[in-house]
Amino acid sequence: MPNYAEILAFLAENPPQLEGECELHASLLELLARCLRNEQVVTDDDFADFGDITGISIN
User: Which residue blocks in 1-59 are alpha helix, DSSP H?
Assistant: First the structure.
């Protein structure tokens, strides 16, 4: 099971700078919320909804 606190801490410590990053953060937060509501493990199929993510550099 994912460590949600770790994921949220990462997102908080690395605020989005570009529009694409804002969309990625929002998508990740939506996915976390969905998982917490459903109490289920995220699968690769869950990420298929987001399509291809390109041009994002995370330092």
Answer: 4-13, 19-38, 44-48
**What is d(CA 16, CA 11) in angstroms, rounded to the nearest whole number?**
8
Which positions ≥6 away from 27 have C-beta within 8 Å? 50
Tens of pLDDT, residue by residue over 9-53, are 888 898 999 988 899 889 988 988 888 888 655 566 666 665 665
Instruction: Check residue 38 and report its DSSP letter.
Output: H
Predicted TM-score of the model (pTM) = 0.54
| Residue 42 contacts residue 2 (beta carbons within 8 Å) | yes
> Do 56 and 19 touch, CB atoms closer than 8 A?
no
**30 phi and psi angles, rounded to 5 deg:** -65, -40
